[in-house]
Amino acid sequence: MFFLLDRHKRYDCVLVQGLSWMIFSFSPLDLSLLAISFWFVLAILSLFLSRIHGFHLCRMFLPGTAGSILLTMSGFLGLDGSPQAKTIPLGLPGLPFHLRQDALSSFFLLIIGFVSLGISIFSSGYFKDDHHGKEIGFLLFQYHLFLISMTLVLLSSDSYLFLLSWESMAMTSYFLVVSDHEKDVVRQAGFLYLLLAHIGTLALFLSFGILSSGGGLQDFSGYAFEQMEKGQHSSLALTMAFFLAFFGFGAKAGILPLHIWLPEAHPVAPSPISALLSGVMLKVAIYGMVRVWFDLIGIHFLSWKWGMVVLAVGLFTALFGILFALTQNDLKRLLAYSSIDNIGIIVMGLGLSIIFFGTGHPVPGALGLIAALYHSLNHAVFKGLLFLGAGSILHASGETNLNRMGGLIRSMPQTAILYLVAILSISAIPPLNGFVSEWLTFQTALSVPLLETGGIRSMVALSAAGLALVSALTAMCFVKVYGIGFLGVPRTAPMPKRHESTIPERLGMLWLASGCLLLGCLPTIVVRYLETITISLTGGGLGKNANGAGWLWLVPQSARRASYSPIVFLAVIVVTTLLTFLVIRILFRRKTRTSASWNCGYPARTSRMQDTADSFSQPIRHFFSPVYKMTRHLPLPTDEKPIFFVEIDDQSWFLFYRPIQKIVEKMSALAGKLQTGKISVYLTYSFLTLLFLLFLVKSP
Amino acid sequence: MTQTSTVPHQWIADLLFKGLGELFQTASVIFFAPIFLGWVNLCRSCLQSRRPAGILQPYRDLLKLLRKEVVLATGASPLFRITPYIVFGSMGLAAALVPAVTTDLPFGPAADAIALVGIFSLARIFMALSAMDIGTPFGDMGARREMMIAFLAEPATMMVLFTASLISRSTSLSTIAETLGGRHFTLYPSLVFATTSFFLIILAENSRLPIDNPSTHLELTMIHEAMLLEYSGRHLALMEWGSSIKLLLYFSILISFFLPWGISHESSFGGLLSGFAFLVLKLFILGTLLAILESTLAKLRLFRAPEFLAAAYLLAVIAFLSHFILEV
Q1: Interface test with B, best of A424, A600, A617, A625 (most B CBs within 10 A)
Q2: Are the beta carbons of B3 and A560 separated by less than 8 Å?
Q3: Of A106-120, A219-233, A264-278, A343-357, where does mean pLDDT reach its minimum?
Q4: Cis peptide upstream of residue A257 (ω within 30 degrees of 0)
Q5: Mutate to test the interface with A, among B114, B160, B169 (most CBs of A within 10 A)
Q6: In this predicted model, what pLDDT tens digit does every residue of A460-494 receive, in sequence order?
Q7: Got the DSSP string for B21-50?
């Protein structure tokens, strides 16, 4: 796909030329708008079709893929091309909507298009008509509206349209999360999500408000991003705008301590929706950070002190996320915590970038930004795949609890292969995609000798150490997922009936898995595209030494410093593996016999003797015990029916939210004292207020 | 200093000329790895007043295993059967990357220090997964413990390599070895910390005492052996051979980064020969040291292992930080 579009001008085939002419005669922005209108029609249509009895509504996910393809193409074309803008006379009188598609928004459009394509294909085989009844029509409606609002967030170029689509994104995703609204826990999770989404939006309002106030404009024209970039602000105002944006977008992305909605909302949402939320929507929040920080505030005003805060928050988020992911036994909850971890890694990349830009080193700054963007794309692809796989497992075996899984590789072998690709990607194993972005983040952090002050240096160095720890813990976490879920023998007593996932499900996962492989093996091409983003945002790329070595070698700074070639890597490892296989085959061709397992000679073996998800993470709980708040029940030797359980609570509830809750309760109790219920008292309040106001007006 | 070209066609031409050195280095690491293990075992036997089995014993063991039939446990998935080849293949790749005999490696630019850690991680993940495949309690136990050691040993390795790469301003393994080998002898505090840390990592990562005892089976404290329990025949041979390559590679990294004198910087015949001779000499000394260490240490309790590794990790982080504080 990369090659196809990269070299579209060299096609000889007339048919392809004609087709590509048709597509490429549209501008990227037109293509995006086309995708939006297509999805809109589809959303309305699915509401009507849900009235028709006997219509297979789930198939309506498939035409939606056309919109995804359009958006993917628009993203590709937009990455190279010049930014395009449009003003649409919608909205309030005098305040039209501004649309703009530049390299940055194109890249995130590409993420939406690419990942939603896989998810839509998967959904057409995942949702069953009889399962959800009429509500599938409503789900389809919200699903496509959700995709539209995310696209609009990326395309909007004024704070009005941005916040409008941001809110619409929050609302539609809320409805998607509470698809199974009959259950109490689902409604609670949905409410928590909505609450944090709105607190975040409030911060965004303030941030945009500060940014639009610059330049001494008398009318409302400051609401357009173009005016915000030009505005003059004091450093205090910029600091406030920066951190309000960090808070606002962080609430959506799931940075510490605003992450609490993620592990509640993801397990209760249908799996394709979780994939969309975690894979794509969190990235829209990352887009917001990049847009406000690197574009609206601008790199010349970024201070390295902000970068230090961002880096520290990112590091703690990543560590927290992976430590809690390790101790979960619900697969989707585990994946939600792992999303927090990955968002932490992305935010660390942004923090490093800000530090380097803020201290006047644009080349490593650009590298950090590229690493963060690359990881956003990678995380979207492999986390989408992981959530989709969790959905397949749920349908095939009726389980999301790892403690009751096991042996899935034997009942769903093809899903198992696709899932293996995903866990290797997320564990940052070369030559898959997760490795490339972590490698780039490490390379950014290793530019640390350029920095002058000891304090910043130590912080950056410690962040590299932390990232190394996080990546090793991630490997352990996903060995646990795969080993407990797919390998071994089933842990539930009556062997559950299981089946392979449906063909559309597997196709959707295959699409994302091939994305993992392609993004891992062709990093030079991806980095070259990402460089256009940094050039358009900051005016500088990676310098002339970078990528001078041809498409085969990923060289971020200079060939002497570091290089990486996943294709050579893959080729050598495949050749040595095959060579070993052939040599062994030819020289030592012996029989293979099957027999009962050796198991150190112990004859009795039951499935309960295997590790569970909880026991696998026991060393981690032991080692990091101060981090966790554990409730444990250990059986006594005399117990007739021994049970063992361990429950881990999120500390942030107790550290941040309970105190806030208590303060709010106290305040409302105080306010409650004012309310007596007697009309005479209320009239006195009004009278006193009036007197006070008159006094204010009167006094000079 | 010879620089490997990275222009594709030139690289392929280079590959043909320099292939000899690369091939010599890879083959010598792969085929002499069991000898190193044999030497360590021989020293250990002598120190423990046992009659040694001879330095070639590991070869006899491997040959014996290769000639035996494979007994697969019922219900073993394809993952279980391909893991030995993947493990051996990734060790083969690592052998082509680590500058042991020469630093003039055409495959060098394909993967740097971070990717090398990635290769070891790849092998480890597959090994742990294959141990969990059959669903025996011992396999799960081994996998769990192996990952427990890895989650600290891997970042520690990374930090040690980063320290070395800060001094040479490069993460490429060959460049690090050349820079560290080319400078005058000065005692860098960061390198002292890094070497100490890396020695602890070698013991832990290669399941040596005091973390794991390589010569015991059927003990509740085993780690590495527990993962291999279900393997037999040629599969087991490949896994064992892979482990011995890994041990040699870790020592080669130690030598080429922290004791780099004598390594060849070009692929000439004489250079390769002298590089090989120096490597053998240093390996014999280090092997003896390892045997002495293993004979004098008792195995740690399992839950002390993370503390041991946390010490290695902290030492590595201190090494990294002390480079800024003391040396720049």
Answers
A1: A600
A2: yes
A3: A219-233
A4: yes
A5: B114
A6: 989 999 999 999 999 999 999 999 989 988 887 66
A7: HHHHHHHHHHHHHHHHHHHHHHHHHHHTT-
Report the candidate in A217, A204, A199, A195 with the shortest Cα–Cα distance to residue A164: A204
Please indicate whether, in this complex, the C-beta atoms of B158 and A468 are within 8 angstroms of each other: yes
3-state secondary structure B129-193: HHHHHCCCHHHHHHHHHHHHHHHHHHHHHHHHHHHHHHHHCCCCHHHHHHHHHHCCCCCCHHHHH
Tell me the average pLDDT of chain A. 86
Q: Answer positive or negative: Cα dihedral of B295, B298, B303, B308.
A: negative
Tokens (6 digits) for B314: 């902290």
The region, left, alpha or beta by phi > 0 then psi within -120 to 50, assigned to residue A589 is beta
Tens-place pLDDT, residues B78-131: 999 999 999 999 999 999 888 887 777 777 788 888 999 999 999 999 999 999
Give the up-direction half-sphere exposure of residue A555: CA atoms within 13 A in the CB hemisphere.
22
Q: Which residue of A has its CA nearest to B151?
A: A472
As a whole number, mean pLDDT of residues B298-307 equals 86
Cβ distance of B135 and A435 shorter than 8 Å: no
Q: Which two tokens stand for residue A88?
A: 């649409």
The DSSP H or E segment spanning A86 is strand A84-92
Q: Using an 8 Å Cβ cutoff, are A42 and A60 in contact?
A: yes
Over its C-alpha atoms, chain A yields an Rg (Å, rounded) of: 27
Q: Binning pLDDT at 50, 70 and 90, where does residue A415 land? A: very high
pLDDT in tens, B247-291: 999 999 998 888 877 777 766 677 778 888 888 888 999 999 999
Q: Which two tokens stand for residue A389?
A: 């796989």
Is residue B118 within 8 Å of A435, Cβ to Cβ? yes
Instruction: Quote ipTM for the complex.
Output: 0.92
The residues with which A401 forms a beta bridge, in sequence order, are A330
Is A473 exposed, middle or buried, given 0-12, 13-18 or 19+ CB atoms closer than 10 A?
buried
Tell me which amino acid residue A140 is.
L
Q: How far apart are CA B220 and CA B228, in angstroms?
A: 14
The answer to whether residue A395 scores a pLDDT higher than 80 is yes
- Alpha-helical segments (H) within A328-412: 331-358, 362-397, 408-411
Percentage of residues of chain A with pLDDT beyond 90: 40
In chain A, where are the structural domains located? 307-585, 651-698
Instruction: Name the band, by pLDDT with cuts 50, 70 and 90, for residue A12.
Output: very low
For residues A375 and A283, what is the distance between their CA atoms, to the nearest angstrom? 10
Q: In A93-224, where do the E strands start and end?
A: 95-101
Please tell me whether residue B71 adopts helix, strand or coil conformation: strand
- Answer whether residue A313 shows pLDDT above 90: yes
Q: Minimal Cα–Cα distance from B158 to chain A, Å?
A: 7
A203 near A244, Cβ under 8 Å? yes
Q: A404-408, A591-595, B125-129, B211-215 — which is least confidently predicted?
A: B211-215
Contact A559 B6 (CB under 8 A): yes
A58: tokens are 């789930």
**Look-up of token digits 């990232």:** A467
User: Are the beta carbons of A92 and A475 closer than 8 angstroms?
Assistant: no
Q: Which residue has the higher pLDDT, B138 or A231?
A: B138
What's the confidence (pLDDT) of residue A376? 95
CB A515 within 8 A of CB A507: no
Which tokens belong to A337?
A: 């915590």
Give dist(CA A181, CA A184) in Å, integer.
Answer: 7
pLDDT tens for residues A604-629? 778 888 888 888 988 888 888 888 88
Cβ B218–A550 below 8 Å, yes or no? Answer: no
